[in-house]
């Protein structure tokens, strides 16, 4: 096998709730594998079954059909203790452990490895130190959890999962409730952990743009269909990324990596740098003015920023999009 080791694998898996005889099937024919050193993002619309799949992988609900193997062994044959040494989880629910310090929380990650008294060995302390260092939270290790921001708490939760020292990390929407910078930081952190610590990481996210920027692999989940799996770049280039956007009003722009609303605007002839034309098109789509139809040409230059308009033999110049907007609205 290649450098990458398969940690978890499933073939023809059906997932859902209830018993096999009276089952509410959520998804079927799911086949996938998770490999060391890879960051995988599971994407799909609300209610499609992402959390159900995560719960099945964690052994919290039994598959309706098929089985999942962890390191070659059926998941159902792996005991709770062994499983918690191999899989670390960060879920969306906020922890209510306000009096614990960050270091106490990270130390909880060692629970599956400690004796029944829960005493930490020197080796455990070193692993906790390392998890704190890798997640860049040394400066807050003595703070109590109730005093943390959402971003700091999320990093502490990731450190706890890292201290567990399993091969597989599973996270449900780790960037929910975070601001833009923290969303990037947390995803970059997870990418580094996957690559440098050789962990397999699976996370659920709705943050398509950040996922494109960081993931090695996407799993696209859609109602009643098998998972579509590939590198983000392949799925973008072959158009399968649009499976995430079943509405005709939305489409994925391959050039910019952004989701755009489709438009019925007939753009005039445009001249200028690619990025200027991109923002001009977005502007014209939003302004939705009938006056755009009588513009024959738009030229945009970036230094000094100017918009030149040719309209029925007349020429106009604007220094900002805002001035152009006023003109279109008059
Ligand atoms: N305990 C349960 N028993 C029966 N059905 C459930 C249970 N939990 C969830 N479901 C149903 O399973 C389907 C998939 O839900 P799930 O939470 O897995 O979706 P999701 O893709 O994670 O959604 P979201 O993006 O909104 O978190 C939904 O129709 C939901 O109502």
Automatic annotation (TrEMBL):
Q: Does the keyword Cell cycle apply?
A: no
List the Pfam families. ABC_tran
> What keywords sit in the KW lines?
ATP-binding, Nucleotide-binding, Transport
Superkingdom to which the source organism belongs? Bacteria
Protein's name in the database: Iron complex transport system ATP-binding protein
> Coiled-coil annotation: which residues?
none
List the CDD domains hit by this protein, alphabetically: ABC_Iron-Siderophores_B12_Hemin
Instruction: Show the Gene3D superfamilies listed in the entry.
Output: P-loop containing nucleotide triphosphate hydrolases (3.40.50.300)
- Write down the InterPro entries for this protein, in alphabetical order: AAA+_ATPase, ABC_transporter-like_ATP-bd, Metal_Ion_Import_ABC, P-loop_NTPase
């Amino acid at each position: 096998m290649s450098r990458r080791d398969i940690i978890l694998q499933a073939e023809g898996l059906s997932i859902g709730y209830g018993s096999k005889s009276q089952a509410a099937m959520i998804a079927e024919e799911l086949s996938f594998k998770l490999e060391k050193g890879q960051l995988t993002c599971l994407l799909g619309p609300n209610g499609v079954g992402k959390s159900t799949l995560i719960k099945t992988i964690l052994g919290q609900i039994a598959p309706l059909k098929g089985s999942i193997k962890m390191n070659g062994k059926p998941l159902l044959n792996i005991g709770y203790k062994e499983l918690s040494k191999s899989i670390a989880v960060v879920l969306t629910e906020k922890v209510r452990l306000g009096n614990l310090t960050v270091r106490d929380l990270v130390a909880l990650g060692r629970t599956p490895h400690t004796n029944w008294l829960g005493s930490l060995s020197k080796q455990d302390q070193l692993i906790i130190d390392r998890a704190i260092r890798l997640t860049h939270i040394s400066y807050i290790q003595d703070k109590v959890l109730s005093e943390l921001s959402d971003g700091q708490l999320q990093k502490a939760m990731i450190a706890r999962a890292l201290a567990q020292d399993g091969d597989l990390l599973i996270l449900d929407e780790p960037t929910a409730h975070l601001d833009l910078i923290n969303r990037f930081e947390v995803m970059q952190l997870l990418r580094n952990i996957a690559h440098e610590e050789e962990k397999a990481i699976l996370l659920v996210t709705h943050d398509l743009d950040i996922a494109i920027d960081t993931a090695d692999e996407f799993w696209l989940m859609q109602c009643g269909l098998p998972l579509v799996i590939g590198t983000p770049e392949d799925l973008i280039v072959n158009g399968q990324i649009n499976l995430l956007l079943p509405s005709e009003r939305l489409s994925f722009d391959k050039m910019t990596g952004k989701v755009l609303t489709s438009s019925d605007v007939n753009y005039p002839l445009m001249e200028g740098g690619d990025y200027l034309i991109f923002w001009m098109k977005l502007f014209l789509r939003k302004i939705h003015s009938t006056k755009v139809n009588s513009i024959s040409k738009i030229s945009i230059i970036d230094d000094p920023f100017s918009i030149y308009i040719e309209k029925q033999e007349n020429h106009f110049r604007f220094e900002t999009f805002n001035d152009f907007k006023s003109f279109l609205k008059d």
